[in-house]
């Protein structure tokens, strides 16, 4: 639970599993979704965030506080983002991208997307399908045709019998 | 916990194409194309991604040509081209790729070449949509790449490195032809002329330069990072205070980073001058420790001094 004391304006955010979080308004409005709610005067009580669970929201709030404490210095912000994402596994990154999309936080969205690209770089097709929850609806012939069409893009990729 | 995992994966696969395509825009184009194998929905998704990212280490010219013809968006956000070995005869193609990106109203262009023989298309310098331009090279970018006609009304960031500056005004003109410019990074300029290099802009907020700065006129400056190899090596004997304290220094400058300070008298005088006159300074970073600096008079009470060690 992130608790802020002594800040001028504090918002209370509620995750979809009913956890409550206090966060400084100045940090929370990094989310355009939250900023719009504040501007529309809907932020008086508790702000429900129906698409974000408590664990992810706690992480997003850590990010909001961390990044908003850094003055306008893009290099330092970038190294904060890199460090923030460095120990996150794929599932957490997936949760973060969903949360960033729902909360409309472009800087977090971009950083997580770039990180996902980095993680996926050498992974097999099967791995990506499993991680993204993608059902392969190609017929074997179609799949072979697509693979043949773009076979030069698969150099250096893991084969499919890995995890 | 497993349910939560499953749930986020299902939601990931339910993301709209626009979001998936945004995620793919951070992928090298080759990796983005590779996703076409995942399922039917993904087959052509890559071709709508508003970004192109090529690297000659993985992509040959044929690939780049082919992708360029299959790629659908009328506008693209990002164009990245890293060419490590440019062989003779390919120049017109490179120019055409850049021109094609500019034609599609690209906002961010990032180019890396090992050599520069007239590779930059003129339209790169007259784009009405370009916001962020980065040109780097393992050799020098001759300043002749900066053409006579420059008009970049929306450009906010420019990164150039390294630059061979033969004198004249073309680089200064380039910077002053960007009315929205906020961030300038010019790494390592080699000057072949005794003519001073000046940076003049009412809008620049962040400036990083690695060469001997002769004159800057940037009243909106918030961040200045100078690595001045020449002054150190030439061992300048004296430093003359400007007759007037520049307004950008006294009322705007908040961060100063001094690199490779070796403790010459003139460096000490410059530091004394900066601390004495920078009224809103919040941070001065000094690489190489000089404890005496801590004792100097500071005009800004909020200013913290930190001695940063180089590793």
Automatic annotation (TrEMBL), chain A:
Subunit structure: Part of a SCF (SKP1-cullin-F-box) protein ligase complex.
Role description: Involved in ubiquitination and subsequent proteasomal degradation of target proteins. Together with CUL1, RBX1 and a F-box protein, it forms a SCF E3 ubiquitin ligase complex. The functional specificity of this complex depends on the type of F-box protein. In the SCF complex, it serves as an adapter that links the F-box protein to CUL1.
Domain (SKP1 component dimerisation): residue spans on this chain: 108-152
MF-aspect GO terms: cullin family protein binding
Keyword entries, A-Z: Ubl conjugation pathway
Annotated SKP1 component POZ domain residues: 11-65
Pathway(s) it belongs to: Protein modification; protein ubiquitination
Family: Belongs to the SKP1 family.
GO BP terms, alphabetized: jasmonic acid mediated signaling pathway; protein ubiquitination; SCF-dependent proteasomal ubiquitin-dependent protein catabolic process
One annotated Gene Ontology cellular component of this protein: cytoplasm
PANTHER family given in the database record: SKP1
Protein name per its UniProtKB record: SKP1-like protein
Coiled coil: none
Pfam families xrefs: Skp1 (PF01466), Skp1_POZ (PF03931)
From TrEMBL, chain B:
InterPro entries: F-box-like_dom_sf (IPR036047), F-box_AtFBL13-like (IPR053781), F-box_dom (IPR001810), FBD (IPR006566), FBL13/AtMIF1-like (IPR050232), LRR_dom_sf (IPR032675), LRR_FXL15/At3g58940/PEG3-like (IPR055411)
Residue ranges of every copy of the F-box domain listed in the record: 9-61
PANTHER family assigned: EMB|CAB62440.1-RELATED (PTHR31900:SF34), F-BOX/RNI SUPERFAMILY PROTEIN-RELATED (PTHR31900)
Name listed for the protein in its UniProt record: F-box domain-containing protein
Organism, scientific name: Erythranthe guttata (Yellow monkey flower)
């Amino acid at each position: 639970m992130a608790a802020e004391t002594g800040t001028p304006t504090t918002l209370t955010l509620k995750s979809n599993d009913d956890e409550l979080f206090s966060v400084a308004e100045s940090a929370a409005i990094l989310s355009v979704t939250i900023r719009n709610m504040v501007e529309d005067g809907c932020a008086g009580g508790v702000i429900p965030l129906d698409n974000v669970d408590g664990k992810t929201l706690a992480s997003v709030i850590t990010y909001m506080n961390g990044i908003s404490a850094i003055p306008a210095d893009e290099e330092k912000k970038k190294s904060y983002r890199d460090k923030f994402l460095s120990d996150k596994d794929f599932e957490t990154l997936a949760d973060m991208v969903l949360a960033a999309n729902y909360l409309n936080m472009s800087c977090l969205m971009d950083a997580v997307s770039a990180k996902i690209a980095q993680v996926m770089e050498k992974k097999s097709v099967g791995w990506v399908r499993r991680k993204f929850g993608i059902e392969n609806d190609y017929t074997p012939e179609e799949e072979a045709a697509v693979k043949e069409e773009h076979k030069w893009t698969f150099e250096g990729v893991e084969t499919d019998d890995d995890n | 916990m497993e349910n939560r995992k499953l749930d986020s994966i299902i939601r990931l696969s339910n993301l709209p194409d626009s979001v998936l395509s945004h995620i793919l825009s951070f992928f090298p184009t080759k990796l983005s194309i590779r996703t076409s194998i995942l399922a039917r929905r993904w087959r052509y998704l890559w071709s709508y991604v508003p970004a192109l990212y090529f690297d000659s280490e993985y992509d040959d010219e044929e690939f780049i040509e082919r992708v360029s013809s299959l790629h659908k968006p009328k506008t693209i956000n990002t164009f990245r081209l890293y060419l490590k070995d440019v062989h003779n005869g390919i120049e017109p193609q490179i120019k055409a790729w850049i021109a094609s990106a500019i034609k599609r109203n690209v906002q961010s262009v990032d180019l890396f070449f090992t050599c520069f023989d007239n590779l930059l298309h003129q339209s790169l310098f007259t784009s009405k949509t370009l916001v962020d331009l980065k040109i780097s090279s393992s050799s020098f970018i001759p300043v002749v790449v900066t053409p006579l006609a420059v008009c970049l009304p929306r450009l906010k960031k420019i990164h150039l490195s390294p630059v061979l500056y033969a004198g004249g005004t073309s680089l200064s003109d380039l910077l002053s032809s960007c009315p929205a410019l906020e961030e300038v990074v010019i790494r390592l300029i080699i000057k072949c002329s005794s003519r001073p290099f000046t940076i003049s802009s009412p809008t620049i907020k962040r400036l990083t330069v690695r060469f001997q700065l002769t004159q800057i006129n940037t009243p909106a400056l918030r961040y200045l990072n100078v690595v001045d190899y020449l002054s150190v090596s030439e061992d300048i004997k004296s430093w003359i205070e400007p007759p007037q304290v520049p307004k950008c220094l006294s009322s705007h400058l908040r961060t100063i980073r001094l690199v490779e300070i070796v403790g010459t008298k003139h460096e000490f005088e410059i530091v004394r001058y900066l601390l004495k006159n920078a009224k809103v300074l919040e941070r001065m970073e000094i690489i190489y420790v000089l404890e005496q600096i801590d004792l100097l008079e500071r005009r800004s009470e909020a200013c913290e001094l930190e001695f940063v060690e180089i590793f």
